[in-house]
Amino acid sequence: MDRRSEHNHTRYLIKSSLLTFILALVGVNSYADIDPPQQLIAHTLSATEVRLSWQPPTNDSDVVGYRIFRDGARIGRTRLTTYVDSSAEPGNQYSYYVTAFDRNKANNSEASNSDTVKTLISADNDGMRNGGVVRQGVPILLDECGVRSVHELSTEDLDGCLDKFIDFTELESGLEDMRAFVARLRKQEDPELVDLGMRVFHSKSLSQNNDTACSSCHNPAVSCGGDNLSLSIGINALSQDVIGLGRTDGNTVPSVGRNSQHICNSALWLESMFWDKRIGLDAPNSEIITGTVSTADIRTPERTVTENIKAEIENTDPHRLLIAQAHFPVTASAEMGDPSGFESEQAYRENLADKLQENWGDSFAQAFDSDEVTMMRIAKSIAAYEASFLFIDNPFFDYIDGNTESLSEEAKRGAVLFYTAGNNGAGCSNCHDGVFFTPEKTRGPLYPQIGPNGVADGNGNSDDPDTLDKNQFRMPSLLNVELTAPYGDKGVFPTLERVVQHYSNIPQSLQDFYNNNETCDLPQFQHLTESECNEVVGGGADYILDLNAAQNANGTARPRDFTEDEIGYLTAFLRSLTDDSARAGSNEINVLIPPRDGGPDGLQLDAVDKDGNPI
Q: Domain 31-118 belongs to what topology?
């Protein structure tokens, strides 16, 4: 470089530095090749607190801190990738984003994605109620809105009519209870325990043959933490990492006899776990207040687990049902492992813990006070991870908050049908009441039964354990129901429309299911022959049709005969209960999936679809 060029270059550097200094003084950003922070997520902790978390930029070697913005105004700075805004106001909606800066503090990244949350209305709610209720009576459309049919309601009268049902069912107070309950769970989260639970949940080392993880049947990237199969495939899958359609063990009839329940909002259940409620509160029904946290002891199918939970887990621990639940899939022979060669189921569980000790000790030490791996610690970490799947924001709740534009006209008419009874109402809220949309009880009506557990699989209506009428299962919550197909305890209905058709005329629906061999219409079984589909049905057809005939004889199954428009209205309403953050690919879902690094022992399940593509 000659002297003139060197002089000009020096002048350029001085001017550039001066310009950078001036821009910094006036607040103009210089981006200096810093990527923005990733996956910003905001969670409400109380009426005045919001927690933010995010992932660092991909090229973060020069990043030394982050600036936090609320509604476009800077409110703080941190060196961490988390921040708690403690200056929020009750009952407000806020939008947040963050930027990264380097050591010069003049070089800012562009903004991260933004995320919006609402704070709680009041700090007085103790967060001990999940919004679930058991309410007697469903309003009549004619009595409340002066018309005999939802079709007679004018567009102008829809909101006023629906408001009456929201008031009748006290959904506003129930929603604030649920939000306070979720905020309490969020505030009690232990990030290190959640992270450990994520790793354990996705590890095949919890199975007997190192071929199956919890996420084999409950994967965050699929159906809100399900598997999209009618009947799940546990051990001995031909392709261990395949999740959903294409996962098979090579048998015509899957060994797992029930549909895999999704993870989303599993921490909101206060009374029981599993379709048959075999884990629940050890208290008379008269002492259990639906929707309210109870400190009653927990009962499980195994005395040792029951005693261990009682001895080691406080009755005030919000995760205790999930902790108890986590003990059982690992000892289910069709799901994860067969304990029959061990002294007891608990001995088998501790053998699993011993298996993890060598490679997982350091990971457990980060979450607990020592590196010891025990089954109870495994269960605690899994429960903490599952409890973080909280997805309750949806268009219908926005409507309850007063945003009348959040629902389509079809969804509003569906809501009116849902919340009314009588000859022209659907009466859905008679069972799916409250903002949790379940009273946490087992109840009919009959659903088609298929698979190895197709006969007398649920709870019955009689104290006689041999009663034929053993067909009842825990009523699911309808939150995010759009995402959790196929539906029913055996996954027998592939769409919401088919579910509503079932309730339109249950006796006819059951006949149609078996007469038309609808098992072959289910995505999991579409490749089977008609004969093979009948093999999947097994004894379920005769069993359930006998129950159907008995109910018809008693006149207990009244057809509703929904029109096509009404089916469309109801399904539009059900889809309005979806939290978009629960959809596959969202920031909230992606942070619940571990990086594809094999985990501590190389046995991590990194999910792929049937074509081998990562999911």
A: Immunoglobulin-like (2.60.40)
